[in-house]
Here is the input.
Amino acid sequence: MKTQLIFATPAQIETELLVVIAADAQTAKGPDARPEPILLTGDAAVKSAANAVLTSGEFKADANETLLLHAPAGISAKRLLLVGVGKATKATAHAIRSAVGTSVRFAKPRGIRAVTFALPETPSLPPGPNSRAAIEGALLADYDPDTYRSDRKDQGVHSFTLAASGAENASVKAGYAEGIIVAESQNFARELVNEPGNKLTPTILGQRAAAMAAANGLKSEVYSTEKLHELKMGAFWSVSQGSEEPPALIVLTYEPEGYDPKTYTGPVLGLVGKGITFDTGGISIKPADKMELMKYDMAGSAAMLGAMAAIGRIKPKVKVISVVCSAENMPDGKAQKPGDVQTAMPFSADEPGKTIEIINTDAEGRLVLADGLTYARQLGCTHLIDAATLTGACVVALGPVNAGGFSNNDETFEKLNKALDISGEKVWRLPLGDEYYDQIRSDIADIKNTGGRWGGAVTAAEFLHVFAGETPWIHLDIAGMAWYEDTKPFIAKGPSGFGVRSILEWVRSYE
Here is the structure.
């Protein structure tokens, strides 16, 4: 999709489809209250073209509601599409992101190849953040996961124009440019998640991460079995030992402009991702139903790689290191077994690694993350965030609406909360505590890799807490958010790229 930003009066733009945002301005309450849809544009000609339908009552301006007008009178566009954002008093940049995505998804199957979106004009929606959200919504909506279909048809929108009224505005330009970077980075993550296990092995994930790093000004190092043994990453290695595919330890580093290790005094942020490119469950094998979706068990690593792609282009003034631990979890004769005891990577030469009793080999994500978190700390990271499709228990608790968030530091988590205000993604904080840690105490080893049925998402987080130690840390359990089971008005069914926007904004909060 080609994109462009123009400053023009919407009614005068010649386009196949002009999209204008509508909101419900109704403030009255009670049984007789009716929606009062209004257009968020100052263009009188556009308002006049839509006036009859706005007053008819057939369009309420609910979130992502659409209404198409052909040959609208008084404007140059062939069609006018109204897209709702719900109550005007509650409209946000994320609502704009979704509305623009809805317009692109609306256009695609109808053969409409050129879409122009009129940037909303209202004091409650600043133009800079809105231009970023709008272009993100367009680029994210244009993606479809039908990569390997032999009869794949061109249903894409070929050109998307963001139209801002009035004189050129620096904040609109900046938001537009940034939105392209963020959306392309999120789509990169989605492309990785969408790949089947035979097309994205740990080795190939390492190759694609290195290529992305080279394209975006990042340093990259990709290691395998020998390095895991050198670092004594027993937890990570235990997951990979049952597969013929070797593991990949991927380390990407971003250094801000002018970085000097001798004088740099800022934080070093560690982004750690679970990269299980296919998860059978190992010896504790999963049921066959839906196992094909376990190709997306590396969505946590994809979120980190997508965030790093954006970081390399946006260039925040803070050092960032990403550690991705990638493996296949397979039930080979060499695979680890329930009851085995593994030794995780020691943080320093002066202390032994934690010993882990393996209760369930399908609780493998926390094992690779354990060594990933330790290695990130060893590399000098002062603050940590990890992302993983870690537990079904989190999906049971929060459904496909919120990711689970955990943290050992309130200040660090508050930065994530502020990042969510920008990203529009949803994370619900869940507790940690000694009572949950007690559930993962082992009789034979230091800890065990599952804590039983109750509070499964929390005990998994407590397991990771052991390896984060006192370092300020956030754990994101994105199991319910990494893959959309149904097509939404603004985005296709399949990989979501969840976390890229929020992780990027969390990093930027430390500038």
User: Anything to note?
Assistant: The two ends are 32 Å apart (CA to CA). The first helix runs from residue 44 to 56. The CA atoms of residues 189 and 302 lie 5 Å apart.
